[in-house]
Amino acid sequence: MKPKIDVPGNGPKYASIMIIGEAPGREEVLRKKPFVGRAGRFLTKILEKNKIDRNKIYVTNVVKFRTPDNRKPNKKEILAYADILEHEIETIRPRLVVLLGNTAIEAVLGKYPVTRIRGKIIKIADRKLRSGSVLSYKILPTFHPAVAMRNRKYRKLFEQDVKKIRRYH
Question: Tens digit of pLDDT for each residue in 27-84?
Fold first, then answer.
């Protein structure tokens, strides 16, 4: 599968924070920008509530196209975009990577349920990339904003996690 890029990552080239979601939705494809739909507006609202300027954050997705019926990307699709995502991380060189939901967690860390690792800062020391570059950064896994919008319990936990982003801003 040749990766198709309908919605590229967006933000400052050397942002200290990178946010990675699952895949663009309808509104994101129309506007060619990640996280501008309902979940994106919710994410921006929670960032603003915590005095975090979204314009200083690089935002992207694991896959860069809208999947059929907006379904979760499959393993083949995730693998097809792995080099592109790794290149984004290498180019941006963030101090903190925020993973929104299970798909982003699986793409970057492997298979871990968000409920087990959310809110924990994970140090990635001297990670060797396919290009030969070596990076060190931290990861903060949390819920996808779409899940946090629908579930009051997860919303509170999501907001607690977003507060942790401030110290990297």
Answer: 999 999 999 999 999 999 999 999 999 999 999 999 999 999 999 999 999 999 999 9
Q: Which amino acid is at 136?
A: S
The 3-state secondary structure of the chain reads CCCCCCCCCECCCCCCEEEEECCCCHHHHHHCCCCCCHHHHHHHHHHHHCCCCHHHEEEEECCCCCCHHHCCCCHHHHHHCHHHHHHHHHHHCCCEEEEECHHHHHHHHCCCCHHHHCCCCEEEEEEECCCCCEEEEEEEEECCHHHHHHCHHHHHHHHHHHHHHHHHC
User: Which token pair is 55?
Assistant: 């314009």
Residue 109's CATH number = 3.40.470.10
- Domain of 64? 17-163
With respect to residue 8, please indicate whether it lies within any of the assigned structural domains: no
Partners of residue 141 on adjacent β-strands: 99
Gap between the Cα atoms of 22 and 40, Å rounded: 12
Q: What pLDDT was estimated at residue 1?
A: 58
As given in the structure block, the two tokens for residue 154 are: 């997860």
The model's pTM: 0.95
Name which of 35, 161, 163, 21 is nearest 105 in CA terms: 21
Token pair of 56 as six digits: 């200083």
